[in-house]
């Protein structure tokens, strides 16, 4: 395993105080903290290499291009993509999904069907609704159980030769459920549908193998995996990326431009118009290096231990209900105290230096399912400790006393 106290030394922010109390950061599902090693890469880039990429013959430009393309190779290796040009740098998960949703406009016709799941983040619902409006395609939803699991028997019934696309998140950000994506992908392929998996919430906890999954598109954001905000990835199988039209026009994405006709550049540049987030892309690669240095097996085992410890402690608090009780879940706990608004709990916890998320977590349909306005969500990373969970438990008890 690893020594969590050593790990915490890598994250300067973890030693700051909030409202006079040591910060207890339990909002990792919204964004993770950044280790010094990743920050150093960003400073090093601007100190020594800053230049525009793929353009100049000059040394700085070539060095910056090399670093950026090395990061793409790191991402390719991490996700085990067959080709590096199947890795498209984007601004993040939302941007990646929109590239695919926009691209499918010309590939769908009226009456085609798109299947999404009841557990989706808004960024994985709205682009498909917009796509349906543009094309006349119909959106179908895989329902969920009280435990927060998708109903696979209903999913099987929804699939038909009309199904063109299936979109499901790998792990739910609101409940932490790990969805059976191997089965979902296999069943979709049997009717000839393409599958996009939203991996934003999975990549901090496990290492997906896109070839083994045989997934058509897989998307994620760097900022939930110890990288910077505003950068992410779209993985697509080469054949699919060749089929999709470009998303934005501009520099970098063209082959030849005349006023009569423009031909597009090859992958991945076809989808990378304009100057990208160069330092962000390089830092994304560094973040994966950092995580792999600790090891995803170690991260997973440690976080599962935190999850079980926290779940047991929280359930001892009378009137506390946990939403999302699947056996297959990651270190996310969504809960409410009976008769108390989640916002009020979050406010008191903040006074105690504890950062949790409150609200609908960009997943309003899930809240509607449970008929609640929202939840308090504590989400743990590999740098959190059992001592911090104890602070959370005491904080919740205090909030309950003050508010009831
Ligand atoms: C965070 C998250 C997103 C959105 O990611 P952005 O970086 O904001 O684009 C989408 N889906 C899931 C499951 C998420 O957790």
Describe the protein.
- The structure is a single chain.
- The chain is α/β, with parallel strands linked by helices.
- The chain has 2 domains: 4-26 and 295-403, Aspartate Aminotransferase, domain 1 (Alpha-Beta Complex), CATH 3.90.1150; 39-292, 3-Layer(aba) Sandwich (Aspartate Aminotransferase, domain 2), CATH 3.40.640.
- 40% of the residues lie in helices and 17% in strands.
- The protein contains 14 helices and 17 strands.
- The chain has helices at residues 4-9, 36-48, 59-79, 93-103, 126-135, 152-158, 181-190, 210-213, 238-243, 278-294, 296-315, 342-351, 364-370, 386-403; strands spanning 17-18, 21-22, 24-25, 87-90, 113-117, 138-142, 163-169, 194-198, 217-221, 232-236, 254-257, 262-264, 320-323, 332-337, 354-355, 357-359, 375-379.
- A 7-stranded mixed β-sheet has the order 4-10-9-8-7-5-6, with helices on both faces.
- A hairpin with an 8-residue loop joins strand 13 and strand 14 (332-337).
- Helix 3 packs across helix 10 (278-294), helix 11 packs parallel to helix 14 and helix 12 crosses helix 14.
- The longest helix is centred in the N-terminal third of the chain and has 21 residues, at 59-79.
- The protein is globular.
- The two termini are 42 Å apart.
- The structure holds pyridoxal-5'-phosphate (PLP).
């Amino acid at each position: 395993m690893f020594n969590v106290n050593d790990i915490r030394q890598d994250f300067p922010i973890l030693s700051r105080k909030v409202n006079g109390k040591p910060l207890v950061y339990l909002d990792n599902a919204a964004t993770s903290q950044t280790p010094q090693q990743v920050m150093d890469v960003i400073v090093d880039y601007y100190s020594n290499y800053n230049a525009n990429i793929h353009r100049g013959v000059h040394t700085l430009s070539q060095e910056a291009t090399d670093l950026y393309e090395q990061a793409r190779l790191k991402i390719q290796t991490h996700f085990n993509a067959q080709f590096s040009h199947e890795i498209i740098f984007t601004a993040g998960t939302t941007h990646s999904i929109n590239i695919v949703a926009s691209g499918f406009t010309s590939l769908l016709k009226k009456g085609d069907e798109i299947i999404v799941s009841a557990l989706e983040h808004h960024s994985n619902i709205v682009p498909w609704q917009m796509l349906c409006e543009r094309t006349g395609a119909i959106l179908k939803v895989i329902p969920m159980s009280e435990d927060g699991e998708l109903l696979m028997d209903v999913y099987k019934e929804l699939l038909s030769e009309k199904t063109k696309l299936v979109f499901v998140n790998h792990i739910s950000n609101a409940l932490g459920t790990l969805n059976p994506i191997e089965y979902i992908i296999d069943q979709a392929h049997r009717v000839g549908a393409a599958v996009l998996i939203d991996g934003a919430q999975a990549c901090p906890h496990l290492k997906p193998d896109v070839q083994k999954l045989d997934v058509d598109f897989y998307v994620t954001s760097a900022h939930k995996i110890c990288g910077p905000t505003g950068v992410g990835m779209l993985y697509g199988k080469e054949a699919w990326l060749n089929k999709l039209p470009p998303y934005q026009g501009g520099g970098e994405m063209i082959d030849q431009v005349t006023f009569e006709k423009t031909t597009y550049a090859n992958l991945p540049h076809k989808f990378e118009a304009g100057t990208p987030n160069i330092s962000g892309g390089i830092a994304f690669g560094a973040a994966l290096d950092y995580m792999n240095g600790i090891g995803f097996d170690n991260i997973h085992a440690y976080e599962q231990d935190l999850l079980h410890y926290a779940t047991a402690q929280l359930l001892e608090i009378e009137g506390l209900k946990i939403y999302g009780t699947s056996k297959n879940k990651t270190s996310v706990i969504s809960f409410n105290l009976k008769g108390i608004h989640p916002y009020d709990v979050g406010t008191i916890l903040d006074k105690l230096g504890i950062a949790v998320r409150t609200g609908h977590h960009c997943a309003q349909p899930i809240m509607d399912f449970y008929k609640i306005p929202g939840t308090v969500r504590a989400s743990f990373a590999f740098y959190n400790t059992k001592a911090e969970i104890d602070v959370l438990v005491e904080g919740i008890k205090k909030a309950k006393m003050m508010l009831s």
